[in-house]
Recover the amino acids of this structure.
């Protein structure tokens, strides 16, 4: 699931996104083996020329490569030192 919208904050347009990805680690596997959902999020948000704020439930275990993959696409996390799950 990925929902997006564009809003104006002050005089800037911002893309807001909310996602809930499949929890592959709960199925005994890894989202690294099934990257399609991540790629869809990146492909949907990449064309934006304005700031993007993405939130949601990424269902990613710390050892999975979600943060690195999103960072390579220009999406950085506000924090990655404290697990949130």
């Amino acid at each position: 699931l990925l929902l997006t919208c564009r809003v104006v904050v002050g005089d800037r347009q911002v893309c807001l996104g909310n996602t809930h990805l499949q929890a592959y680690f709960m199925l005994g596997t890894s989202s690294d083996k099934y990257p399609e959902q991540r790629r869809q999020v990146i492909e949907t948000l990449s064309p934006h020329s304005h700031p993007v704020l993405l939130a949601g439930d990424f269902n990613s275990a710390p050892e999975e490569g979600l943060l690195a993959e999103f960072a390579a696409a220009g999406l950085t996390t506000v924090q990655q030192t404290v697990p949130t799950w």
The two ends are 19 Å apart (CA to CA). Residues 2 and 19 are 4 Å apart (CA to CA). The longest helix spans residues 36-45. The first strand starts at residue 2 and ends at 9.
